[in-house]
Amino acid sequence: MRTLETLLGGEWVTTGEWVDVHDPADLRAPVARIPALPAKDVTRAYDLAEQGFAVWKRTSPFDRARILTEAARLIRERLDTIAADVTAENGKTLAEARGEAGKAADFLDYYAGLARQGYGTLLHDARPDTRTHTQREPIGVILVISPWNDPLITPARKLAPLLATGNAAVFKPATETPASGLHLARALHDAGLPAGVLNVVTGRTAEIEEALLDDPRITGITFTGSNAVGNRIRRRLTDRNVRFQGELGGKNASVVLRDADLAAAAKSVVAASFGQAGQRCTATSRVIVERPVHEEFARLLLAEVETLTVGPGTDPATTLCPLSSPRQRDSVLADLKRAVEQGATVLAGGTADTEGARAHGCYVRPTVLADVTPETAIWREEVFGPVLALRAVDDFAAAVAAVNDSDYGLAAAVFTRDLGAAYRFADEADCGQVAVNTTTTGWDVHLPFGGFRDSGTAYKEQGEEVLRFSTRVKTVAVHFGA
Predict the structure, then answer these.
(1) What is the pLDDT of residue 127?
(2) DSSP-based three-state secondary structure for 10
(3) What are the distances in angstroms from CA 11 to CA 14, 160, 199, 262?
């Protein structure tokens, strides 16, 4: 079993306390262990970040860009090693892990490009001989809390823009999947990131939560995870001048209209629903089908589900990986049990997969449910697993109403040949990401990303939009007359 070090003040350190990391494909033996930092080391991380920020905010944007570009190169150079660790601790397929590593490098490259540009606007001034402009500045020390489902790409999309704009960071990776984030930290460190600009806090969140969230030097917190935790953080910040960027839950819907290419829609829905075993915030978990094509679409959908191969991420034949932990597996199975008790019919799957070696992992068969209603819990609540609920509606208006009848508003898709229906859906779907004739998943680095309502906060991620979170605006007026 490997022993991993964490990064504090530009040095790789360990402690006397450890947390084991397990492979969800086979839980019998830990694959690594990480330092379980105590609260005093979390406070030290903020001390070091404060010192690092004093240096980094004055570092040339061109030097920041050079470091991010070099870190991207190192990730691509180490891609196979990194992907193997992502698969080992998270469970996703090697193909998915390689894609994640490549996209993490893309985030670093993209924000390296933005770092080279000026952030600001030239403004007219009513006063004579006066030139006024705005400029964007870093906000300070930002706490980054990332989840276990995308353990490399999520910290990359958070850290890249905040580092590009001159901020420092304290980074808390998920306890279940720390190795992936540590690969990102090592690439940045090896690329020449100054000491203290990035500090990685590993360990048991419950033991260090107070030190992690309550430090007075925090200027912003960016968090991806559950609504329960996100809302707890938000309440904790109520009387503090701390920005909060939250990417929270989703209950994403795909709508199949009667004129759609049903075969193509079925393939896209299965890809969006069962990739990474449904453990994506943008995964499709509800399918709303116009009644005249409901039966045919259901047949095509089930045929596509039957082509999925459940297995470990290291097997090239696997197209449906294990869930990322026993806790997540058991949570999904409990949701399925409750759905059946509430009247849902299982069209496919519905149980754990314990055949052969899979008995030692966190496998759940790909599941399709019918006979759900708007009141069925699994239609309304996030499951975060390989579960898809299918429901028929009468027309376009009913489909849009069903999409919007949710506390969440992250992603939605529509499948249609009618351009007018596509644009109407884009206008009327109350969510942050809308797809037409493609999956709800798969948003690129330069595209603003985030949800409405309970799916997130006003600060979006990705693209230039994220600069609203990681920078503050200063207005400067220069009088150059006599």
Answers:
(1) 94
(2) coil
(3) 10, 20, 9, 55
